[in-house]
Amino acid sequence: MSQSVIEVSALSFAYNQHPVLENINMQVAQGEFLAVLGPNGGGKTTLMRILLGVLQPSRGEVRVMGSAPGHLPHVVGYVPQSQSTGEKFPITVLETVLLGRLGHLGRWGRFSKTDQQLARQALEDVDMQEYAWRSIGSLSGGQRQRVLIARALAARPQILFLDEPTAAVDQAFHSRFYDLLKEMNESGTTILVISHDLSVLSSHVKAVACVNKNLYYHHAAEISQEMLEKVYHCPVELITHGDVPHRVLRHH
Predict the structure, then answer these.
(1) Over the stretch 11-63, which tens digit does the pLDDT of each residue have?
(2) Which of 101, 94, 167, 168 is nearest to 136 (CA)?
(3) How far is CA 95 from CA 139, 160, 239, in A?
(4) How far is the first Cα of the chain from the last one, in angstroms, to the nearest whole number?
(5) What is the helix (H) or strand (E) element at residue 15, kind and residue range?
(6) 13: left (phi over 0), alpha (psi -120 to 50) or beta
(7) What does the pLDDT look like over 152-188, one tens digit per residue?
(8) Which of 16, 35, 172, 242 is most solvent-facing, going by the fewest CB within 10 Å?
(9) pTM, rounded to two decimals
(10) β-strand pairing of 159-163 with 190-194
C-alpha cells in the first residue's frame, strides 16, 4: 500500500463564524491522481488553500509530506484559478516560470543552468516557448494561465495542486494539458485537481473527492450519478464520451 502524503483529520473551517468545511477526514496516497468535485461555494478552493498552508483550519490537523502545510514549498506545486495578477508587473515570461524554481536555489541564491533548462522545457510543454522574453503583462488571460501552469511544471513537484487550471485556456491546449498531468502522475507526482470538466477527468483520475461542506472520498475513478447528486443536492446529468457521446440518466 502506498504511503500517505496528505493526511487530514477532523478538519473544520469557518469564515466569520460561517461554517465552510465540517469534520473533513482524508488520506491521499503517494502517486494518487485525485479529482476534487463539488458546487461553487462548497469549500473546494478553501480546502486546497488549507492544504497549501494559505489558510489555517478552525479545528483539526493537516499534514503534507509529514509536515504542517506550507513548510515544504520545494515539494509542492500550485496552479491557481485564472486571474489578472501580473498584468502590470515588469517581468518576462521566462522569469515568471523560473519563480517555480525558487525552492531549489543553491547556496549562492542564483538560478542554475538546470533551473534555466527546466523552465524552458516547461514553456515548451505548454507551447509558450516563443513568448519567453515577452512581458507577462502583454499576454492574454489564457496565455498567462499557460505560463502559470509552466511555472508549476518547472518546479518538478512531488505534489501538484490545481484549481480550475484550464478555465481560461483554449480548447486546443485543453486535452494536451491533461495528457501532461497524466505523464507527471505516471512518473510519481501526486496530483489534486479541482475541475468541473468531468468528461476529461473521468479518463485520467484514480480517485474522486466530492466536497460540499462535508467530504465524500472514493478510492476509485468512478464518477457516478449517486455520488454527484449526494454532493450537489440536485439531479445531475452525466455526459459520457466514448465511441458515441451519450447521456447517462437515472431511471425516470
Answers:
(1) 999 998 899 999 999 999 999 999 998 888 899 999 999 999 999 999 999 99
(2) 94
(3) 14, 20, 41
(4) 41
(5) strand 4-15
(6) beta
(7) 999 999 999 999 988 777 777 877 888 889 999 999 9
(8) 16
(9) 0.84
(10) parallel
Cell of 243: 465511441
Q: CA-to-CA distance for 113 and 85, rounded, in angstroms?
A: 28
Q: Where are the alpha helices (DSSP H) in 99-170?
A: 113-125, 141-154
**Residue 102 vs residues 45, 106, 161, 166: alpha-carbon distances, Å:** 24, 9, 17, 24
Overall residue count recorded for the chain in this entry: 252
Structural Rg of the chain based on CA atoms: 19
Residue 5 vs residues 37, 134, 231, 247: alpha-carbon distances, Å: 20, 37, 25, 36
For 176, left (φ over 0), alpha (ψ -120 to 50), or beta? Answer: alpha
Task: Please state, in angstroms and rounded to a whole number, the distance separating the CA atoms of residues 176 and 146.
Answer: 12
Residues whose CB is less than 8 angstroms from the CB of residue 132 and which lie 6 or more positions away in sequence, other chains included: 92, 93, 94, 120, 123
Q: Is residue 7 scored above 90 in pLDDT?
A: yes
The grid coordinates of residue 1 equal 500500500
State whether the Cα torsion 132-137-143-144 is positive or negative. Answer: positive
Stated as kind and residue range, the H or E segment containing 197 is: none
